[in-house]
Amino acid sequence: MKHAPFCCDLRVTWCHHRNPVLCFLLSFQALRLSNSATRETSTGQIRAPSFSFKVTMFLHFLWVGPLQAVVVTALLWMEVGISCLAGMAVLILLLLLQSCIGKLFSLLWSKTAAYTDVRIRTMSEVITGIRTVKMYTWEKSIMDLIARLRRKEVSKILRSSYLRGLNLASFFALSKIMVFVTFITSEVLGNVITASQVFVVVTLFEALRLTGTLHFPMAVEKVSEAVVSIQRVKNFLLLEETSQHNPQLPSDGEAIVHMHDFTAFWDKASETPTLQGLSFTIRPGELLAVVGPVGAGKSSLLSAVLGELPPSQGEVTVRGRIAYVPQQPWLFPGTVRSNILFGKKYEKDRYEKVLKACALEEDLQPLEDGDLTVVRGRGTPLSAGQKARISLARALYQDADIYLLDDPLSAVDAGVSRHLFEQCIRQALREKITILVTHQLQYLKDASQILILKDGKIMKKGTFAEFPKPGVDFEDIPLKEKEAEPPPVPDSPTPSQASESSVESQENPRPLLEDAAPQDQDAENIRVTLSLESRSEGKVGFKTYKNYFISGDNWFIIIFLILVNIAAQVNKDIYFGFLMFLYFSSNCGYRPFWHHKVSVDVLHPC
């Protein structure tokens, strides 16, 4: 037992070395999930690191416990004979009971995990749409909904706690019961119990108590939980992934996007294809404008070029580096400059040209720290238009070959929209391949090609000069639609956030933020505008403990449990005192005070 701390530390070290590997696998898989697979999982569904540590701590007691029980049984047989089997029978019954408890643990853990998934998914949706909740005063209804979900989850957790308490209770009671049953059986068989036998039997059962009644039950419980968690990890790792699409660099120096008779399904079980029979070719210097009503498949077309929507028929050829601007801007916590550079080396002239093309110069001037202002979660304190232009500037700074722009003009006003189209799309990207999804029909006359989609099919394709012909009416296409295309299930989900940032060729991989810091300014000069978190210092007051107890059960139950705990601690001393009393009473002539007229116990020396 003296080596137990070392073994425990060794297991902890082993676990901490395994956790990063498991976290890496889960993170890597999350980045490769297809859009249909992302609908099958949710945030918080996988909590692998929390169980691997506990399982590693107790796993080996699954075989150490039975082995120790066999050794202790052999020693007890040598000491008290067949009577020891009665005590070991109690242990076997406990093991059978714990086996049933383990199955119940697995069942309850599965149900608890399912309820937790629903609650976390609901909370995520509420937080995302908190403005809508406040606008329609749905606070009470949402609180009731979350409370109901939490009550269902807590009910399963409560049952698991009951089983856990039953396991822990066996730790304190089992060794006494085993000793009691062993001695009663020995007395019934007519054997003489000596003091040496009592101490040997108690010592052996105490040695078995820690492993048999604490570590082994904990191992059964944690392994049961781990089996469920591992199955969830396995299911997550086996989810559908996006096709391994690596854009080829043009061997002849010319980038190209070519699609021929392309048909694809977001949901393979659906009979209606998301995209059907698409064919077009775009070369450098050309601008393809994609228009159509909501749900026509415009975002799905960009997903196909990105390689996230695999073809079921036809082919798509992409040669060149891709930069993608999503419909919903994505910003990471950091400065505005780091969000634009996105790991690229800072070049002042190039950087200023990008700011000018994306109409960000005037927006950054009112900020106290300019482009060194720290952006917090969800792009705070920037407006929706500013976030959209920063996302566009990030793609422009990457200097890619192919630009996929998913309606970047819808989040800005008419003046800024005109500036972005003229200065960014027509000027800065004039030598690039550009696919622009837009609802701004006034810009179609400047497009090299126009693609009108409806229900995933090409309604019309050609130049602006070809469209006034009979049979094509621009009035059929809405001038202004909603800011984002809702992803019909399973028609056309938006491209996953794995591609929301600029996607660059893997030919020249580099650390993401290696050169992101400006060379002409030390990092110490960057003033962080994040507000410091409030913190309290000092001792925990009595009020905190009072609230903690009040949050539990009533005071009577708390006091009762404290008294039971004290009684359980002194019970062992009372029990051994009673055994010593019986021993001296039968061997040393000890007579208690009620056998005498005086009120003092008399102990005759042996």
Account of the protein in words:
Residues 494-506 have a biased composition (Low complexity). It is found in: Membrane. Residues 55-205 form the ABC transmembrane type-1 domain. Residues 482-518 are annotated as: Disordered. With 606 residues, the chain is α/β, with parallel strands linked by helices. It has 3 domains: 4-237, ABC transporter type 1, transmembrane domain (ABC transporter transmembrane region fold), CATH 1.20.1560.10; 256-523, Rossmann fold (3-Layer(aba) Sandwich), CATH 3.40.50.300; 558-595. 51% of the residues lie in helices and 10% in strands. It has a 6-stranded mixed beta sheet with strand order 5-8-9-3-10-11, sandwiched between helices. It has a 3-stranded antiparallel beta sheet with strand order 2-1-4, covered by helices on one side. Strands 6-7 form a two-stranded antiparallel ribbon. It starts with a helix and ends in a 19-residue tail after the last helix. Mean pLDDT is 76; it is low at 1-17, 478-534 and 589-606.
